[in-house]
Design a protein that fits this description.
This protein is mostly helical. The protein is built from 47 helices and four strands. The strands form two sheets. A two-stranded antiparallel sheet has the order 1-2. A two-stranded antiparallel sheet has the order 3-4. Helix 23 packs antiparallel against helix 24 and helix 27 crosses helix 29. The longest helix is centred in the last third of the chain and has 75 residues. The radius of gyration is 49 Å and the shape is elongated.
């Protein structure tokens, strides 16, 4: 192993040849020479002790040792096993060389000798194999220092040490054997295995097959369970590493030892009212382990996670739910962090598991006569607790209970019965004998007496879970009417109207004070708006109820334009207003009138900007659908045990307009829901704004036919008018399309032009009004143009029919004239034959021939005349229908037909003149 050449190259490049460290280098070199070449054992041991002391105190000595000391000490460990003191000294010196030395003047960019020494030592697998072999030595200190050395290597170079331990035969087994040693060695081995298993899945599997579960629970039991010290915490951290995202290890634990040893740690023994910091940390670690088991695998679809579902079933069978309820609900003397973690575990335990949800719904806490359902107790904690963290954690239970559970939602909604007016002003302490729904309504209406809306917004959060995606519950709550605070204020009012009133009350309270008076009042706006958004979603009757009160729409428009409101509040108010457009089926306040009000009071550009500002707010940017659970290390557990202080500090240190806990109230599921709803709102509003409703109200005077004006002049004048209007309309429609495109694009372009847009608000309103009127006008013109074209086509068709009929009559007249001429010719021939007297030729009977010819001609004429009369009858019926239609449109039928009749009369006169000439 060429340690010297490698290390000297690194040190030379980093530090150069600094004369200030030359004394340390020479001193370390002399000590190493005494150790390797000394003849007296005592002198070598003394040199080893001096070397350990100087390396532990000087960074320059650490550098010098790394450059030349590793071969010497590794040789001692390998060849001088019999000399226990030398081996101890060598191991202790190596630990000092790998331990960082804190220096007040050291900079962050300065190279750390301890890290360089760790990297150099871990490069050679033979070195790790040599250290692991020392664990089989009988001497206590040799095994103790070896474990410390391995821990230091693992801290500085984890990946290399993990690979080396896997490469060395029985490397993991040797470490596992250390768990059965004396306490000091066992605790060091426990820390080493905890660091080793954080990310090494192969090592996790080997430890489990080596019996890690049995040894861990055995140590926990020996240490006293939750009452134990930091060793119990280390055992639970090691257990968490073995179970985190490892389904096979979870199945092995469930099928072999079961979850009883883990659940038994949650049993509170002895002085249950006393929670030390270490006991709290131990219980938090157990709850973290349970949370890992409940989540099973983060990469698996929650709906298809059979391992997680099996874990939930077994845990409830082992009465885990009872222990969690004791910690979260009945142990009000327990620290807040512990109660919050218990509520989180209850929520995860019942999520997507119908049987566990039913088990929670049927749980009864306390003893008679003070027994009450568990859901009532959890709701009371939500309404009464002074900790926002505990409120959010308890609210998480109802969120999980109501997800994909329509029957459970109906069960909770069925208890929503208003209390008598005498109970409305009763304090929260008197809600012990109330049902779940009555307690919830009591919390919603209690704020009227003291002006504190915190309890109201917490109850509203629970109600939002009950109403989510459940039309039956939405309709039922819509029917609830609350009595007025005083009889003089009128009769009962709908429950929804009361919630909107509280929303306005929160705005007035904040504007008077300048800021929120309490930490809870900062969440009133978002939570009540969240409730209304969920309530109005896909529920036209809820939209109608909301719009029944005219001030509601006005208040929403003012809230969206309010400069003091946060971006999140204005965005949620814009979403609520958009729902009134998308799901609107009312008559008085239809979707078009709401869009018109938005365009006039706010402007579509500014309205769409509220969505983009909301997307950039803290709750929307920090929302993550699946956050990876961080390992509960010692530092994290210690900070969680003091959650009350942390909460206050975080709340005070935040500079954002939105409160820091708002991202937990508006969870990722609601954020995704709002983003999808926003896209639908944008599309619907642009569609309504681009295609306003068509309604022919007034026909322009230019479209009326003047008296004495012929049809041809009227048609020509209409054509000129329509062409002119079409040119103007086409120009305005192109501007309209440009404006709509600009509106949609500007909605996502940010707020850099907001001030410029608002300065031209009046001009934008005028343009929008003119465009809307012109669009309606163009639609009326298009309708009249189509009607005019149809009438012209029918008139042309009838004119052609009349011409055809006239030609038929003329042909019939010509045939009759030809017959007359033939008859005259025959008569002349007969007269000629009569004049030839004395002729013996037989003369035919002329009268008979003439009679036959007349009959034939008459029969032919009657047939053609009958056909002509049928055609004329059909044409007459069409003319009557067209006349009726023209009268409906306001046309003068006689004038229209007057010209056609005159033309026909002219043609008839010409025909008669022709016949006279013939």
């Amino acid at each position: 192993m060429d340690f010297v050449s490698k290390y000297q190259g690194v040190v030379g490049r980093v530090f150069g040849n600094d004369n200030s460290s030359s004394n340390d280098d020479s001193y370390v070199e002399r000590l190493l020479d005494r150790i390797s070449n000394g003849s007296l054992a005592e002198d070598r041991r003394s040199a080893m002790a001096e070397l350990q002391a100087v390396v532990a105190e000087s960074r320059a000595a650490q550098l010098a040792f790394g450059a030349m000391g590793f071969p010497v000490l590794l040789s001692v460990l390998k060849e001088e096993r019999d000399d226990v003191e030398m081996v101890r000294g060598a191991l202790e010196t190596l630990v000092s060389a790998l331990t960082p030395i804190e220096h007040a003047r050291s900079s962050k960019n300065e190279v750390q000798p301890a890290l360089m020494n760790s990297d150099l030592l871990s490069r050679e697998i033979e070195s790790i194999s040599l250290l692991l072999s020392l664990l089989s030595e009988e001497d206590f200190y040799i095994r103790y220092y070896t474990l410390q050395l391995l821990t230091a290597l693992l801290t500085n170079s984890p990946n290399r040490l993990q690979e080396a331990i896997l490469t060395v035969p029985r490397g993991v087994t040797r470490l596992m054997d250390m768990l059965m040693e004396r306490e000091v060695i066992r605790n060091e081995a426990l820390l080493l295995l905890t660091y080793l298993t954080r990310e090494a899945e192969e090592i996790q599997k080997i430890l489990v097959f080596e019996g890690a579960f049995e040894k861990i629970f055995s140590i926990i039991k020996e240490e006293g369970g939750s009452e134990g010290g930091v060793v119990v915490q280390d055992c639970l951290e090691l257990l968490n590493n073995l179970l985190r995202n490892n389904a096979s290890n979870q199945v092995l634990l469930r099928e072999t030892m079961g979850f009883e040893p883990l659940i038994s740690i949650l049993k509170l023994r002895g002085s249950t009212y006393k929670f030390t910091q270490q006991k709290t940390i131990n219980l938090l670690s157990v709850l973290d382990t349970i949370a890992l088991i409940l989540h099973a695998s983060s990469q698996t679809d929650p709906g298809k996670d059979t391992n997680g579902s099996a874990n939930k079933t077994v845990l409830v069978q082992k009465k885990l739910l009872d222990y969690l309820l004791v910690l979260g609900v009945e142990s009000q003397w327990a620290p807040v962090a512990l109660r919050c973690m218990a509520f989180r575990c209850i929520g995860d335990l019942i999520a997507d598991h119908p049987k566990n949800r039913d088990a929670l719904a049927s749980k009864v806490l306390g003893e008679e006569p003070d027994a009450e359902p568990a859901v009532n107790s959890i709701l009371r904690i939500i309404l009464r607790t002074s900790s926002v963290q505990e409120f959010i954690a308890a609210d998480y239970v109802f969120k999980r209970f109501c997800e994909k559970n329509p029957e459970g939602q109906k069960m909770l909604a069925s208890t929503l019965i208003p209390q008598p007016h005498s109970m409305v002003h009763a304090p929260l302490e008197e809600d012990v004998n109330m049902s779940f729904g009555s307690m919830l309504l009591h919390g919603l209406t209690l704020s009227e007496s003291d002006g504190d809306l915190e309890a109201c917004c917490r109850a509203a959060s629970v109600l939002s879970h009950i109403l989510k995606d459940n039309v039956y519950c939405k309709e039922k709550v819509l029917k609830i009417e609350l009595e007025a605070p005083t009889p003089s204020l009128g009769g009962p009012e709908p429950f929804m109207h009361r919630m909107v009133k509280y929303l306005a009350l929160a705005s007035s309270m904040k504007s008077k004070d300048g800021n929120a008076s309490t930490s809870g009042s900062m969440y009133v706006h978002p939570i009540i708006l969240k409730l209304l958004v969920i309530w109005l979603f896909d529920c036209p009757s809820a939209v109608q109820c909301f719009l029944d009160s005219r001030p509601h729409l006005t208040y929403l428009l003012e809230l969206i334009s309010n400069q003091t409101a946060t971006a999140c509040v204005k965005g949620l108010a814009a979403i609520l207003l958009g729902e009134c457009v998308v799901y609107n089926k009312t008559i008085d306040k239809d979707a078009y009138s709401i869009v018109d009000a938005v365009s006039q009071k706010i402007g579509l550009t500014s309205y769409f900007l509220k969505f983009d500002e909301m997307q950039k707010s803290l709750p929307f940017t920090s929302a993550k659908p699946a956050m990876a659970r961080k390992p509960l290390s010692r530092s994290i557990a210690a900070s969680m045990s003091e959650i009350e202080d942390v909460e206050e500090n975080e709340t005070n240190d935040q500079n954002s307009d939105d409160p820091p806990m708002l991202e937990m109230i508006l969870d990722s599921g609601f954020i995704v829901f709002v983003k999808r709803l926003e896209a639908n709102i944008r599309e619907k509003i642009v569609e309504i704004y681009s295609h306003p409703k068509s309604q022919v109200a007034v026909v322009p005077a230019e479209l009326e036919q003047n008296r004495g004006e012929s049809d041809e002049e009227y048609i020509k004048r209409l054509k000129r008018f329509v062409e002119k209007q079409c040119l103007e309309i086409q120009d305005l429609l192109s501007r309209n399309a440009t404006l709509v495109e600009d509106l949609t694009k500007t909605g996502g372009s940010g707020s850099s032009h907001t001030e410029h847009k608002s300065s031209s608000g009046s001009e934008r309103v005028q343009i929008e009004t003119m465009r809307r009127d012109l669009h309606e006008y163009s639609q009326r013109l298009e309708t009249l143009k189509a009607e005019k074209a149809r009438i012209e086509a029918e008139a042309s068709m009838h004119k052609n029919t009349a011409i055809k009929t006239e030609s038929d009559l003329k042909s019939l007249s010509d045939a009759y004239n030809s017959l007359e001429q033939a008859n005259d010719q025959l008569e002349r021939e007969i007269k000629a034959l009569k004049s030839n007297g004395g002729s013996a030729v037989a003369v035919p009977n002329i009268e008979v021939i003439k009679a036959q010819a007349r009959e034939e001609a008459q029969m032919e004429s009657e047939g053609e005349l009958s056909d002509l009369l049928v055609c004329l009858g059909q044409e007459q019926s069409k003319v009557e229908k067209l006349s009726a239609r023209l009268m409906e449109l306001g046309e003068d039928v006689d004038k229209l037909l007057e010209g056609i009749g005159e033309d026909t009369g002219i043609h008839d006169d010409e025909d008669d003149d022709d016949e006279d000439e013939d």
